Amino acid sequence: QDPPPGRAPGYPYQKLIRGAIVGSPRLKLTLAEIYDAIAGRFQYYRDLPDAKWK
Q1: Would you indicate the residue range of the signal peptide (predicted)?
Q2: Taking the CB of residue 37, how many other CB atoms lie within 10 A of it?
């Protein structure tokens, strides 16, 4: 379930990372690919003005 606009998803980073990896075709990703997958899934991370979350 997606969080309301402007709010972070209620998952720890470990779960976000695992979801990105498990959702990938090869079941492995580079760090940059993990960041892209998380930002692609959750608007909150796309809309942040800087990349401090990375």
Answers
A1: none
A2: 18
Closest of 6, 1, 3 to residue 46, by C-alpha: 6
Q: pLDDT band for 17, please (50, 70, 90 cuts).
A: very high
Helices (H) and strands (E) in the chain, counts: 3, 0
Q: CA 24 → CA 8, 27, 38, 48, 52, distances in Å? A: 22, 5, 11, 24, 24
Total number of domains in the chain: 1
How far apart are the C-alpha atoms of 7 and 21, rounded to whole Å?
23
Q: Is residue 1 part of a domain?
A: no
Residue 33 lies in a domain: yes
Which residues form the domain of 33?
13-47
